[in-house]
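Our consortium's second objective concerns turning raw sequence data into structural hypotheses that experimental partners can test. To show how far this objective has progressed, the report includes one record in full. It was chosen at random from the queue rather than selected for favorable results. The single chain below, 180 residues long, was entered without modification.
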Amino acid sequence: MKTKSLSVFPACALAFAAGLWSAPAASASTVLTSISPQTLEALLEAEGAMLTQVTTGGDTTLRSEPLQIGPSDVKPIAFEVFFYECDGGDFIDPAGPGSACLSFEYRALAPSLVPGEDAEIANRWNEIYHFGKAWRDELGEVALQMSVVVDGGVTEENIRATYRRWRITLAAFAEYLDME
């Protein structure tokens, strides 16, 4: 009896393994090796973002409506998306609506909280939090940015997941600023 059951096991294992290899592949997300403002806008709007394309001096960015992303007592915060390395140009060359860009950056600004202490507030954020880099801009506002590189290929799902991560980071930033 033992011999029979052992001889059936390899046959069953082979049949099972063959079934796994012949199963249809799961639907894969499209791989992007560059991204345009138009494509990113469509992907983010599918995630619920309310964006407007803005072109100034030939450079296209995306601007969000202010988002209530933290507790209701935390002020809504808007963000902007900047595009870099577009159409084979340099890092800072302007992006058109249909440009093929190798990277983009989410950026949000908060008004000065405590004049003279903004740099310290940004430094503390950078020390504590992994995602999103904070800094003080030339107008005295505290900025939060998160860069995304598409060059080399990323999936559309990765772009959507990165946006969800940006929203989580932005909510943490809004709460952090509210505590300062």
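The partners drew two points from this record. The chain has one domain: 29-179. The longest helix spans residues 156-179. Both points have been shared with the crystallography group to help prioritize constructs.
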